[in-house]
Amino acid sequence: MPTMAMSTQSLLMHSECCITIRSRPKMNWLINIIILQVLLGQVFSDLLCLSSDKCSCKHHVYKDEIQVECGLSTVEANLMESIIKVECNSDKIHWEQHFDQINIRDLHYANCLLSDTGIHQTISTLGINKVQNMKLVSMRLNGSLENGYLSNLESVKTLDITLTKLILTNGSFEGTPNLTKLYLRHNYIEEIPNGVFKSLTLLEILDLGDNKITEINSDLFYGIPLKGLNLDSNYLTTLNLNVQSLKHLDVANNRITSITVGNLSKLVDISLNKNVLVTMPDQTFKNTSIESIRFSYGSFTALPHRFLTNLDRLLYVYLRSLNIEKIPENMIWNSSNIIELSLASNRLNELPVMFFRDAGKMKMLDLSKNQIETIDHELLRPLIKLETLDLSNNLIVQINNYGLRYLRNLKYLNLERNKIINFGREALNVPKLTTLKLAYNKISSLISNYEFSLHYLEEIETIDLSNNFINCIDPGWLNLIKLNNINLASNNFTILRIQDIQYINEIVRTNLNNNPLEVIDLSDLEVFARAQSPPNNFWNNRRINLSSDKFICDCRNYEFARFLHNQMPKVVYKYLQIEQKLICNDGLRTEFSNVNMESLTCDWDIFEDVDKTDCTECECTYRPHDKSALMNCSNRNLTLAPEIIISSRNINYTELNLRNNSITKLPNYEKLNIKKLNIGYNNLNTINITQLPKNLVELHMEHNNLTMISETNLNNTLPNINILTMNSNSWICDCDAKNTINFIHKYSSKIFDLANITCYQSTTLLYTLTVEEVCLERSNTATIIIVSMFLAVFSLVLGLLWILYKNYKTKIKIWLYSHNITWPISEESLDQDKKYDAFISFSHKDEELVAKHLVPGLEGGNSPFKLCLHYRDWVVGDWIPAQIARSVDESRRTIIVLSQHFLDSVWGRTEFRTAYSSALNERRSRIIVILYGEMSTKDLDPELKAYLSMNTYIKWGDYWFWEKLRYALPHRPEMKNKTRTKIIVPDKLNPTLLT
């Protein structure tokens, strides 16, 4: 590059040119000044755009570049990197001078049509001189590569031509005599003329890869100091070269069946990958200086004897994926400097015992992906310096005590994907081992003195035991102080205790994912954490990864739940960190981290305590959250409450659930440590508060038959109670309810259902009553006596009248009613809100009697009655039981037409029961029974039979039928002054005119 300085005046004359110096934050100001001076003195003068009418010049300030555009073609120059890139996108371009004679190290040509005048003419026109490295990409030639195309390029030392269809001639490179490196990859070359490289007397590197060459003359490179030759990815079938200077040869991915390297005395490394060599002569490389051999992906099944013997410079041997079934015992004898040997991905089932006789310096041995079943204890004995051993993907079942004992410098051991069940007791006595991989085997135990032990591995850092059948960890690994990564994923761990990992000092990560973990016992975690606390082990930081879908979500994992919910001391979380995804085995795939800690209970039998009482007839559990015992006796049809309640010295209290049984009485629980008692939905009649547990906090007694709370001293009763429920009982509200009312007033703030506690058969709320309201005071004793005497005399007279009335009541009532004398006690005030006088209940098969006789007879005349009939007054589609209840409730009487059809009707019996229940509640006679036709008494319901035995009824056809019926119906006061008219009702049973 020219060194002439550029004056300030010339710089100003070319104002269209710009130079930008990229800032370098880490460079100090002194270096910036020096670089600026160099650039101003040497570079600025070169980076100029000469004026042109056909081309434009652009300056990229931030890239330190000039870009010249001539139509579709471009020239980019970067003198900071000493590179010019020429891209021809047109065949008709006429180049002009764009630079003031600059020297460039690298010139890149792309998409250009080479003319007969050659490349030199083009770059000279542009003003470019002395190019050292030239790259031609996707060029186009008119025919073969003649000498004129590359003429006068004596300065070029490296030539790279690619993606160009080349036809070589003997004179192709005469214009580049100083080439040291020639790259001709991917140019569709088919033939190599014998004299094509004759003029390249300095050529050291030649790359002819990725072409279509089928043959190479053995003397093609005679007289050329070639050191590196790349012939990969061609169509060669044989190879016999005579190049004394060649060191590096790559003939991978050809079709070579035989090769001769006897004339390559300086050959250092060779790549034979992906060829079809079947065999080679004995001691193929004996006259070479071979250091590295790479041969993979072929079918080299039979290796020749002494194949690699007596090669004292050989360091690296890679014979992979060649389907080798057997190797000669002497294959590497007397080649004592081999450092790495790979026989991976073959079909070896064993190695000769003396195979490694002279391999004392070997550091890496790869025998993976073979069919090796055993490792003879003498086989590896010579490998005293071996550091890496890969025996993965074999069929090894066991390694005995002496199999690895001589590998005193082994650091990496890979035994993955074998069938290993166990090791000899001292098989892993390899003191310098740092990485051990045993994944995908059949190991079931890590217990010392049982199958094998890892406690010899003082330097071990990584252990991979994933995908085995291990269910526990050896607690004797006390000396594994450098272990920082252990993989136990996909094994058979069901229980993990803190003791299993506490011995591992400063562990970084333990992977226990995909194990069928059921229980994680961290009960001693705090003890271990405090023992390891600062300053002794300040940086102790154990990390564990856990996942399982078999996790038991009960109290056995309560301590682990405490850990997840940050309820342990801070020192614990400095000692241990856990990342987990544990799924409960509840069928709902609940994540354990989302489970409420209070719900973690266990069966009483699991709770270990020698002082605990037995649980017999109920379901008993233990809850560690508050150290309580839960005795659930609900829904067991009990008539007697259990007297023996579960307890233990190590629990705080018991919860007793007796809900939904048939218990009528509670035993004395006063001295028991029960805090929660549920006796709801039973048949209790009374409850003695003084016999309840003193420490009771929660009491549920809703839905019983309780009428009152028995005598009690409220000052010392239930001092700790917080929750009470009492609704849906038969609480009386008379003077005997004093204790009940006082109890409710005292604990009103604790009673959860206070607004629902009412008097029996009333809507009156108990908490609104006072004792004074339910217990009226008698004024004095005299008043009581007088009233008593009066009542006695009155009762005597009333009794005599009652006897007289009892004997003649029907005749008296009928006579009075038939003479329009109203009965002294009027029902009008009681029934004034009733909508109907009577509801007639009958079978639809007796509808003729009702429609033609009863309805006209009762709704006609001077004193008609208002009747409710289901075929007339019911709402279509409404619920039948609701309509029955509504009809009975809205009628002053219910007339039952009792016949055999009625007894056979389900709805008839329902209507009777509804009317009968209403009459009982009101304590008044509301039912009128008309017997119609013949019927069997055995068909009568017990309630109906009892009713007929205790009450009178009217038979259809009776002489006084209509008088009796009207008398039984509500009496109307307005009939008092009216004259009774005759009613003639046709009666097929008794056609008599009634007056």
Task: Walk me through this protein's architecture.
- There is one protein chain.
- With 995 residues, the chain is α/β, with parallel strands linked by helices.
- 17% of the residues lie in helices and 18% in strands.
- The strands form eight sheets. It has a 24-stranded mixed β-sheet. A seven-stranded mixed β-sheet has the order 33-34-35-36-37-39-41, with no helix packed on it. A five-stranded parallel β-sheet has the order 43-42-44-45-46, with helices on both faces.
- Helix 11 (847-859) links the parallel strand 42 and strand 43 (867-868).
- Helix 13 (880-889) runs parallel beside helix 15.
- It starts with 7 loop residues before the first helix and ends in a 27-residue tail after the last helix.
- Residues 1-47, 777-782 and 974-995 have low confidence and may be disordered.
Write out key terms for the chains shown:
995 residues, seven-stranded mixed β-sheet, 17 helices, 18% strand, disordered C terminus, TIR_dom, glycoprotein
